[in-house]
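Regression report. Comparing outputs from two consecutive submissions.

Submission 1:
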Amino acid sequence: MADEEYEGDPRVGVMNGVAVPTVEPVEGYDDHPDHEAPSIESLRRLVRRGDSVVVVGGGWGASTVVAARMTHYEGDVTTFEATSEMISTIERTIEINRVSDLVTLRHAAVGEVSEFTEKLYGEADGDLLGPEAIPACDVLELDCEGAELEILRALDFDPRVIIVETHGDLGSPTEEVEAELADRGYEIVDRGVVGPDDDLDVLTATREA
């Protein structure tokens, strides 16, 4: 798939097994096998056939594609993304990976949007929604640059699996996220790190039905 053409783009890069159209590929940096590895590996391991999955913070769309694939094309994925630029990227990513029919894209931020987020990803020009906008699901992935704790504390249902990338500098430190998950009856089943300096923790938690 890495050599598959996409209209408007010179080539397609690969991020952890997901084809991602790239406008300006950088020589030697097109292939990112470890992109968001802890979250994506947890999705590959824990999403089941027919699951409903919600991704808050869509990024390049890799998590969305992996989640859709792991439902065995019998489930659905709802992805929230706050910026127009990244929404456009996700639209192209899900199209080239042929999962568009399984995915609902919401151009919206859930919870508070930090200045850091807008500096990194561009203006959050989508709708601003509260955690109550998240539909009930089997698997929830949160990577929303500091809004994770706000969402967890307000969540009015309990997914079977929650995957959280913590952001201590933005108000969602690992220790508080762990405590909130424990209070909700979840057990941490996997831990990983991401980021340029491996400075962001990723927690995967499950809860007995």
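Submission 2:
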Amino acid sequence: MLSYYVSRGEDWNEQKIREHFLAQDGIVIAKSGQVLGFSFYELKEKCIHIHTLQIASPYQNRTLGGRFFKWYRELASKTSSEVITCGVYESNAARYMYERIGFKEIGLVNGVVKMALTLTSTDLGLGARDLSPAVNVMLKGLG
């Protein structure tokens, strides 16, 4: 994420970033004590907004991103959410992963592509049970 800030000429303030994300709900996927990826999100009226989804380099372009989205779909089912939204830097290759799983571009603001996945009844119910053997851990407001 630092490289995206630098490429855009933005200041990197690690403390401010930590405070922002750790004030959100989140999920961590780990295996044998090693963090493979994490994501922080916010529930807003029938919507799940993903603030960040980070996957360790050795696990990128595999199945881990899909596992996060299966978990998000289960969360959507439990919370009666109708859409999942996120923003991704224009130059981030993960943008195409979002498109492959059904996200549509809904806007562009300062180099960030705003995306949304409208959920249907067939999207729901694919859940955390599919994460095995990874471990998911819910986090809230860690400091």
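Expected: both submissions complete independently.
Actual: both completed, but the second showed a warning that disappeared on reload.
Relevant detail on submission 2: Residues 124-143 have pLDDT under 50 and may be disordered.
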